[in-house]
């Protein structure tokens, strides 16, 4: 008699009986097949062909670990651009991402009763408040600590720029139509703004000295269609040298539509998310790229030195954007001591015109200012009342196109990347930030409304400090 078999042993025995002895040839074929399958999987994981990449790009773009090919994915996932995408020399021009906490804190601050921002937005603060820092003569030293000087360098501005300045001053321009500086209105206009505030001077005098680029475009100057202007807007998208950030009375730069899609893709890492408020070295406001003109207005009770300090800060940022772009490409010799921006300081009777440039004498960039003209436009019965107007209009029509072409040539030389998902990802990222910002605003508004309601309404909660109301008894039917 035999001992009963274990059930597991019986199952194993039956399986072996059915299968029979395995031949060595079949076993070798199975091993070869497994090896070939493993090799194929390794090839597929190691790198897919171009057709598969183009088909699956939209699906795998955000999850791809190849951040060099997908820089936007790295920005979305890690809040910074991939180091492998750029040379280390390009780090200096990358945008500074705005943190989500700053957006939320700004919204909460805006909603708090009694806070300055809840009463007056930053761009609408009184002119005296925004320029308080610049009244101190020690601000000049602060600028010098940042390598910005309100004077000429040792070598001065380049000879080529000097010739350009002469041309900009002397090239004829038609006087503006319906001007407040016409022969019949000039004296009356100047008298009407004596002892008036900056807002009045900005309204009546500034357009006669610094023509509006957008208005000229509307009146037929089509080649100025690439320009966009701002009036008393804070340069919130620029990395300031000092605090507070610039807020010129008037400024001009290039609009987004002036650049091609390919150029915008190349400078995208330098811009970041402009809608969300990322800070850049090539932007002023979220609408202005590569600014080149700023204007500051003062009234009779304020010194023009204050306006000069404001313009020095603003123009340094304007020049810096071009300098950083060309330094990345090692083309700084092309812009050495060449004027890259202009500024105008004026009050009810005096005008100061400046050109701003960078000097690379010691390798690194230092920023300087060249005086073009300073004069009283009311003297000699207004003999030079249109000098500033003519000069700025020539800047728009003669100097600006050459400056823009130079910037575009540098942008075209930047390293680029091609990925069909980039545009859609940028749009989705902007939408995400806008949605998050609006949600934070809505939440803060709800919280502030709730707080105000609690302040205005007596406490009726059962958990509050006040007495609870007694429930009414039902009447017997």
UniProtKB/TrEMBL annotation:
<feature type="compositionally biased region" description="Polar residues">
    <location>
        <begin position="112"/>
        <end position="123"/>
    </location>
</feature>
<dbReference type="Pfam" id="PF25545">
    <property type="entry name" value="DUF7924"/>
</dbReference>
<feature type="region of interest" description="Disordered">
    <location>
        <begin position="1"/>
        <end position="54"/>
    </location>
</feature>
<feature type="compositionally biased region" description="Basic and acidic residues">
    <location>
        <begin position="124"/>
        <end position="149"/>
    </location>
</feature>
<feature type="region of interest" description="Disordered">
    <location>
        <begin position="97"/>
        <end position="159"/>
    </location>
</feature>
<protein>
    <recommendedName>
        <fullName>DUF7924 domain-containing protein</fullName>
    </recommendedName>
</protein>
<dbReference type="InterPro" id="IPR057684">
    <property type="entry name" value="DUF7924"/>
</dbReference>
<feature type="compositionally biased region" description="Polar residues">
    <location>
        <begin position="454"/>
        <end position="463"/>
    </location>
</feature>
<feature type="region of interest" description="Disordered">
    <location>
        <begin position="440"/>
        <end position="477"/>
    </location>
</feature>
<feature type="domain" description="DUF7924">
    <location>
        <begin position="186"/>
        <end position="411"/>
    </location>
</feature>
